[in-house]
Design goal:
With 382 residues, the protein is mainly beta. Helix content is 2%, strand content 39%.
């Protein structure tokens, strides 16, 4: 794998594959209200870069025996809520002992290919409303729902009926997107795919191949770049990673087709090029990635921010990538960790204190599961 740092933009020249590792087919990032309180414009423009080289230490295996895990949402008490893509269930994992308790099954999920029950997010007001948001593939589309999680009810029957807040995201056997997250502005962001219909990515009337920004009720969020539209950015192929840095700037990972996977700094209203561009382009109409990888080395799903870097889970690449940041640029070559040690890596979530929750994806039909798969790991990073 060869890496070069050219100008302020990083290019990785190694070979990569599309999406979850199957066959092909498939400026400044400023969210509204994102200016950090008390920070001077000069300080914001000149972020301190982390060391060029970091480290990763796996502290423990938190849980084993998970079936097609996809989304992971840390609960306030330190436990973890995990979605099963193919079984359409939510499972609570004890953050200390790893004990697994089924919360309930989400009705209406239609798993197939890369689709099923995917991303999870807790309401910004979870302490008072106990609402869990989920992104899933139905018989007709991809949609986002919210459900009451009542811990007082018996195990397996703790989920209320899903309330669909957004529907009509195109579905396909591949490229269903699926990551959702509440931003620092308490708006709901969703990474979607173009479902294999590449023209949808450039169609601002379609929610496919986009990053969407919604209110918690599923309406287009105030301040979106296009009037009365949920679209926040477009020209994406298949976004499955969303994370914000400490300055509230949004970053997103994206699957390439045959050549380049991407990490992008997201600017509202910008066009990220697909299908006209895969990876860097000389066309000024397209926002270039801050880092790119050959598809054999990445096929990125989830990302998280910790210790001044974006940490990116690689599926086909079977490794955890560290991308150190200076502002919205990569400040040094990305580093790869855990290469091949735990297989396909699906989801990574900040656990605070320089730690991450890292979840594998060997049981998704494209891995080679061994005893104990799939797993959640607790990882210390720097």
């Amino acid at each position: 794998m060869t890496a070069v740092l050219a100008v302020a933009t990083l290019l990785m020249t190694a070979g990569c594959s599309s999406d979850d590792g199957g066959s092909p087919g498939g400026g400044e990032s400023t969210a509204p209200g994102s200016t950090a309180s008390g920070a001077s414009p000069t300080r914001q423009a000149a972020d301190d870069a982390p060391p060029a080289k970091g480290s990763v230490k796996v502290l423990r295996t938190v849980a084993e025996g998970l079936e097609t895990p996809w989304g992971l949402a840390p609960l306030p008490d330190g436990d973890l809520l995990v979605s099963s893509r193919d079984e359409a269930t939510l499972t609570r994992v004890d953050g200390e002992t790893g004990k697994k308790t089924e919360v309930g099954e989400v009705p209406g999920v239609s798993p197939a290919g890369e689709g099923g029950l995917m991303g999870l997010a807790l309401s910004p007001d979870y302490a008072s409303d106990h609402m869990v948001y989920a992104y899933f593939t139905s018989a007709s589309d991809n949609r986002i729902v919210r459900m009451l999680y009542d811990e007082q009810k018996p195990s397996g029957a703790q989920l209320g009926a899903p309330d669909t807040i957004f529907r009509g995201i195109p579905k396909g056997f591949v490229h269903n997107g699926g990551r959702i997250a509440f931003g620092p502005d308490k708006m709901l962001y969703a990474g979607t795919g173009e479902s294999g219909d590449t023209g949808l990515s450039q169609d601002k009337e379609s929610p496919g191949g986009k990053i969407l920004r919604l209110t918690p009720e599923g309406e287009p969020a105030p301040g979106n770049p296009f009037p009365d539209s949920p679209v926040y950015s477009y020209g994406h192929r298949n976004v499955q990673g969303l994370a914000w840095d400490t300055k509230q700037r949004l970053f997103a990972s994206e699957f390439g087709q045959d050549t380049w996977d991407e990490l992008n700094a997201i600017k509202p209203g910008d066009n990220y090029g697909w299908p006209q561009a895969e990876g860097r382009s000389d066309d000024a109409a397209f926002h270039n990635p801050i880092a790119q990888w050959g598809t054999d080395d990445a096929s990125p799903s989830g990302i998280a921010y910790a210790e001044g870097s974006i940490w990116m889970a690689g599926l086909k690449g079977q490794r955890l990538w560290r991308i150190p940041l200076k502002g919205t640029e990569a400040s040094a070559d990305p580093q790869a960790f855990l290469e091949g040690e735990y297989g396909r890596l699906r989801t990574v979530v900040s656990a605070g204190g320089g730690k991450l929750w890292l979840m594998t994806s060997e049981t998704d039909g494209r891995g080679s599961p061994e005893g104990g798969d799939d797993r959640i790991l607790e990882v210390q990073v720097s």
